[in-house]
Amino acid sequence: MKKKAYRAVEVKKINIEQLVSSHGQERVVFGIDVAKTDFYSSVMDESRKILTTIKWKNPVQTEEFVAVVEKFPKAEVALEPSGTYGDPLRCLLEKSKIPVYRVSPKRSHDAAEVYDGVPSLHDAKSAAIISKLHLDGASEKWELKTDHERDLVAVLTSLDILKQQFIQNTNRLEALMAKH
């Protein structure tokens, strides 16, 4: 694969009219490498050709990126479930009725060398691998949790924090009581 395939264009500088005119009615996949601030998306058509790679700063330019995705009526977005950095993006995409899919980080890591013969990963390559894995059917629909499910997770997380504090304080008390 040529180095040129991984060159990324800033979301503000992307020629969206040209991209939409040539691929607007096709199914395109936006494979996204999620990070703390520097997001990359590889836009790939069904023939596995990278149309462009987009980069943007999260959260400052995330709405601009979603506006680009909205221009494609058959757009699909695939990303890795890496922490909570991608949650605001996912929420914006869900509000825009754009289907969001999850790709296992293990699969994308394992596919690195198979993809272009080089075992190393970088942001733009990861985004391309995520797009390809989604097109190969190695992803699943990523549904948002219901309010009830989010509430349960919050309660369980709180209980876990309190349990840890209880164990620490029990151990401290034991140590103090041991000298008597």
Keywords:
single chain; 180 residues; alpha/beta; Nucleotidyltransferase, domain 5; 2 domains; seven-stranded mixed sheet; 7 helices; 7 strands
Structure description:
- This protein has helices at residues 16-23, 62-70, 87-95, 105-110, 112-116, 123-135, 147-178; strands at 9-10, 28-33, 38-45, 50-57, 75-79, 100-103, 139-141.
- It has 180 residues and is of the alpha/beta class.
- The protein folds into 2 domains: 3-143, 2-Layer Sandwich (Nucleotidyltransferase, domain 5); 145-180.
- The chain has a 7-stranded mixed beta sheet with strand order 1-4-3-2-5-6-7.
- The chain is elongated, with a radius of gyration of 21 Å.
- The model has no long low-confidence stretch (mean pLDDT 92).
* Helix percent band: 40-55%
Euclidean distance between termini CA atoms: 72 Å
Reading the helices and strands in chain order gives EHEEEHEHEHHHEH
| CATH homology superfamily of the largest domain | YqgF/RNase H-like domain
Q: Which topology of the largest domain does CATH recognise?
A: Nucleotidyltransferase, domain 5
What Rg, in angstroms, do the CA atoms define?
A: 21 Å
The order of strands across the largest sheet is 1-4-3-2-5-6-7
Domain count: the total is: 2
List the total number of helices.
7
CATH architecture term of the largest domain: 2-Layer Sandwich
